[in-house]
Amino acid sequence: MQTFERKIDESFQKHLSDAYAARIRSVERRLRYSLDRLIYKDEEEFLEGSDLDPDQRWQLVQSLSRLNDRSGYHAIFLREIERLIRGFKLSDPKAPLKILDVGAGGGGLLRAIHRWAKKKKRPVDLHGIDLSPEFICRTKAHLDKQGVPVTLQQADASQLHRFSDNSFDIVVSSYMVHHLRTAGRVASFLSQTHRVARRGWLLVDFDRRSYGPPLVRILGTLFGGHPLIVTDGVKSIRRAYKVSEINFILQQIRKHKLLKGMICESYPVLPYWLIRGFKVNV
To answer: Which of 73, 122, 202, 227 lies 20 to 30 Å from 216 when distance is taken between CA atoms?
Structure first.
């Protein structure tokens, strides 16, 4: 695994150098590159830091969940899940769809999926993993109190190897990939997602676009996000991977491993990218 990740890292760094060389050949490309360099900044987010006490961290995570509800982000995600599921030919529509959320955090996305499934009368078997044991305990108690049945485990995106092939019907992830700070770790996560997903996947994160930081600040404030969460959103998009960078990583994975059906697409207008796709059509 380390050799695989190192090869991806080396290829990615060469890709960035080659891209720079190509961009400086024209004024337009040079300007685009300069603007991207002004936007890009890799700094620790508040929720990643050790300065927050557990109660404050939990309050911020719940504020983020409310912001995702108010802004319509969860609604966008659920529409994409519906679009994904429409591509399945389910032999038994009454059988629960087993869904894994990687980077479950405070459980906001799992709760949204539960509400959606209940409304659509579609049975689901919800699972989540998160790096923080603190979140696992609090999120489980919080979701249990709200009547959301879920299985949670402490793990991070690099530990999907603990699951066997085709363990889940769908693997989802929201705003998690930008926390993986090397291309090798991203490649490992994407290839493992492909392995453990029996039917398909839906992965969404920020796309580092020039208008992203001010738009995130405006929308976050407009929908009542906590100031620290809004600032984290700006930090997230400044350190996020561009859709072209994710597609390059996917291209490199294909050179080393069998991986089909994963394509990263830009979301219209909003500064997101998404990877939606099918592994098998059953």
So the answer is: 202
